[in-house]
Design a protein that fits this description.
The structure is a single chain. This protein is about 40% helix and about 15% strand. The chain has helices at about 25-40, 60-75, 90-100, 120-125, 135-140, 150-165, 175-185, 210-225, 240-245, 270-285, 290-300; strands at about 5-10, 45, 50, 55-60, 80, 105-110, 165-170, 195-200, 225-235, 250-255, 260-265, 265.
Length: about 300
C-alpha cells in the first residue's frame, strides 16, 4: 500500500490558549512544534497564525513568513497555509498570505457554513487567560464562516495561477463534495484531487463511522482514481475517526488545531505527541507514513524551492 500522508495542524483558530497551555503561540513555539511533528512522521504541516503576545488568531503575512522560514530551515515537510483563517477575517485578509508567500499547498474550504465554537464557553467560564477568548468564541453564534462560490472560483482560477500553489480541499459535509465536482467539471481543478474530510465541526457533518463511509463513497464516485483523500476528527473523536479512515486506506490529519487531548483525560503536551501516536497506530495496521518526497509526488506539488519564503 502507499504510504499514509500524515498532516499535522499545529495551532488552528478554533481553540484558545486557556484550553491547553501547550498550544503554540509564539513564533519559536510554532516552529519548534512543527519541526518536531515532522520528525515524528508528519509530511505536511498545516499552519494558522497567532498574535505572539496573547495568542489570538491573526492573518499577518509577516508572522506566517517567520513560521514558514523557520519550518523550512528545520525540515523538508510540505507547508500548507490556511485560507480559512478565523471567523471574522475577510476573504481578502485570508488570501493575502498565499499571494505573498506562494506556498506549495493551501487549504480551500468548500462552502459557507455555521462554524460553532461558542458551545465550548461553559467549560472554561471564569478561567479565561485573555480577555479576547470568550467574545471570539461567542461571535461564532452570529457570524458564519464565509466561503462563497465566487471565492472558490477566484482561488482556483486566479490565486492558483499567480502562485503555483495547489489545494487541500476541506469538505465539512457531503454537499461540499458536489461543489468540488462542479469545479472539476469546469476544468478548474487538475488531478490529483486532495480532499480532507472534516468530521465533527459543530455545523458540519458529525464524527460517525457511517458518515466516513458515506463521504468516501460519494468522493470515490465523483472523483474516482483522481482522488487522494484524508480525514480529521474534531475534539474527543480525533483518534477514533482518523484510525477508521486509515483502515479504509485514507490519509490522516492530527494536531492541536483539531483535538487538545492525547487520550481521555490527558491533554497533549505537543503536536509531536499526537503525530507519534497516530504513526504507532498506523504501524500496528501495517501502514507507514509517507515521507515529504512521496507526498510531493502524489499531490503534484511544485517543490520547496519554488516558494516565496
Amino acid at each position: 500500500m502507499k504510504g499514509v500522508i500524515v498532516t499535522c495542524a499545529v495551532t488552528g483558530s478554533s481553540h484558545t490558549p486557556t484550553m491547553n497551555s501547550d498550544i503554540p503561540v509564539t513564533v519559536e513555539e510554532h516552529v519548534r512544534q512543527s519541526v518536531d511533528a515532522a520528525r515524528e512522521g508528519a509530511s505536511v504541516i498545516h499552519i494558522h497564525a497567532r498574535d505572539p503576545v496573547d495568542g489570538r488568531p491573526v492573518s499577518d503575512p509577516g508572522i506566517f513568513r517567520e513560521y514558514c522560514a523557520g519550518i523550512k530551515a528545520g525540515c523538508d515537510a510540505v507547508i500548507s497555509i490556511t485560507t480559512g483563517g478565523a471567523t471574522g477575517q475577510t476573504i481578502q485578509e485570508r488570501l493575502r498570505v498565499i499571494e505573498v508567500l506562494k506556498p506549495e499547498l493551501a487549504t480551500c474550504n468548500l462552502g459557507t457554513m455555521n462554524y460553532g465554537l461558542f458551545q465550548m464557553i461553559p467549560r472554561y467560564e471564569g478561567r479565561w487567560k485573555y480577555d479576547w477568548e470568550e467574545p471570539y468564541l461567542e461571535s461564532t453564534k452570529r457570524e458564519p464562516f464565509v466561503n462563497t462560490f465566487a471565492d472558490i472560483e477566484y482561488m482556483l482560477s486566479v490565486l492558483a495561477g499567480n502562485t503555483g500553489c495547489r489545494f487541500e480541499f476541506e469538505a465539512y459535509d457531503v454537499g461540499h463534495l458536489y461543489t468540488l465536482a462542479y469545479f472539476v467539471d469546469r476544468g478548474l481543478v487538475e488531478p490529483p484531487i486532495f480532499v480532507q474530510f472534516v468530521m465533527g465541526t459543530f455545523g458540519g457533518i458529525g464524527p460517525d463511522i457511517e458518515n466516513v463511509v458515506a463521504m468516501k463513497t460519494v468522493a470515490n464516485r465523483l472523483f474516482g482514481h483522481d482522488l487522494e483523500w484524508s480525514i480529521l476528527g474534531g475534539g474527543r473523536f480525533q483518534f477514533d475517526i482518523v484510525t477508521a479512515g486509515a483502515t479504509m486506506g485514507g490519509n490522516v490529519r492530527v494536531g492541536l488545531e483539531d483535538g487538545l487531548y492525547l487520550r481521555k483525560g490527558k491533554l497533549a503536551e505537543s503536536n509531536a505527541e499526537q503525530v507519534a501516536k497516530i504513526v504507532r497506530i498506523l504501524r500496528e495496521l501495517s501502514r507507514e507514513p509517507a515521507n515529504p518526497t512521496e507526498t510531493r509526488e502524489r499531490l503534484a506539488l511544485k517543490g520547496l524551492d519554488q516558494v516565496a519564503f
